[in-house]
Specification:
The chain is α+β, with helices and mostly antiparallel strands. It has eight helices and 20 strands. The strands form four sheets. It has a six-stranded mixed sheet, with helices on both faces. It has a five-stranded antiparallel sheet with strand order 13-12-11-14-20. Helix 2 (94-104) packs across helix 3 (109-122) and helix 3 (109-122) crosses helix 4.
Length: 347
């Protein structure tokens, strides 16, 4: 994947005195599954709506396949959108909903029938075509909405939190199905969510957004393992974040101790944020720890125990398959390559 399909260039959006998007620069490759991830109000849905043509940027441009599409209305853009509220037609059955776009285009009936059947198979609803959409479950209605968008053969499918209304198990099942559909069809998906698990499960690339700005773009494993700042570290997974000072290349000081790390290129004695993921905290006997603390709380999470460990003024969160009893003293060890040093973000 090397060819850009969509480029957002210096995109800004304001509503009155409120800035919703600030200088968004982002490209999307052909056949890529890109997720816009962030909290409510961060600008991710506005970004999606600008790509779809439902909003226009205050400044900037949207380039599609090398040409600006700012002046094109939504129905002339080579994209289709699946909304959180599926917007199905309640007076039509599943097949009629799926076929709606083709009938508007006056596609021959025989071809419509064939393509609707293909879509029903793709979204695992074979045999459901004659059913009223009001009789379908939430997950089945979502599949109909996706099929209705895909039957028009868009180059890009935009999905605005489409799994938000589903229960946990169905949401997890649909994450896998959506990724399989995208890979089978070979088209570009741009997906909006506030759910980090969805983003990590399905995406080729994640763009983490906050307050109208992109905080970090990268592969899921890079975003998780090497967060660019404290916001990303907190939003993607759980984190222990502690203030530190970079004493030199490969040497960071925090909580009164110096630690070997794998980071370099900081100024001498530069203040930094240090991130350690809970699963990277290794609990050892107190005498063997680089740091020590008292176990304050233990919660069984099924695959691991989550423990809160009070080490001086800092409360560590640790995940381990071995429980340390509440009230006991333990040691803490973190390997150098599991200490992530980040520059502080100006506020």
């Amino acid at each position: 994947m090397s060819e850009h399909l969509i480029d957002l260039v210096g995109v800004c959006k304001t509503f009155g005195q409120s800035t919703v998007l600030s200088n968004i620069n982002l490209f999307v490759r052909k056949n890529e599954f890109l997720t816009l991830l962030g909290p409510s109000g961060c600008g991710k849905t506005t970004t999606l709506r600008i790509i779809g043509g439902f909003e226009y940027p205050t400044n900037g441009d949207v380039i599609f396949d090398g040409k600006s599409i700012l002046k094109l209305p939504p129905h002339k853009r080579r994209v289709n959108t699946v909304f959180q509220k599926y917007a199905l037609f309640p007076n039509m059955n599943a097949a009629e909903n799926i076929a709606f776009g083709l009938r508007i285009k006056k596609v021959p009936s025989q071809e419509i029938t064939r393509r609707v059947e293909d879509m029903l198979r793709l979204v695992n609803l074979r045999g459901y075509g004659r059913r009223a959409v009001t009789s379908l479950s939430g997950g089945q209605q979502q599949r109909v909405a996706i099929a209705r968008a895909l039957i028009n053969e868009p180059d890009v499918l935009l999905l605005d939190e489409p799994l938000g209304a589903l229960d946990l198990k169905l949401r997890k099942d649909m994450q896998i199905e959506l990724k399989n559909m995208q890979q089978k069809l070979g088209i570009t998906f741009i997906y909006v969510t506030h759910d980090q698990e969805e983003a990590l499960t399905m995406s080729d690339t994640i763009a983490v957004m906050n307050a109208g700005e992109i905080q970090q773009i990268g592969k899921p494993e890079d975003i998780y393992n090497e967060p660019g700042n404290a916001f990303v570290a907190n939003f993607i997974g759980e984190s222990n974040i502690v203030a530190g000072v970079m004493r030199g290349d490969y040497c960071v000081e925090f909580l009164g101790r110096r630690f070997e790390c794998v980071d370099k290129g900081f100024k001498p004695d530069e203040p930094v944020d240090v991130v350690v993921r809970p699963e990277d905290v290794r609990i050892v006997p107190q005498s063997e720890g680089a740091l020590t603390g008292v176990v304050r709380n233990v919660i069984f999470k099924g695959v691991h125990y989550e423990m809160l460990i009070q080490g001086g003024e800092f409360l560590w969160k640790a995940h381990s398959t071995v429980m340390s009893a509440a009230g006991g003293w333990v040691g803490i060890v973190v390997a150098p390559d599991l200490i992530h040093v980040m520059r502080k973000v100006a506020t």
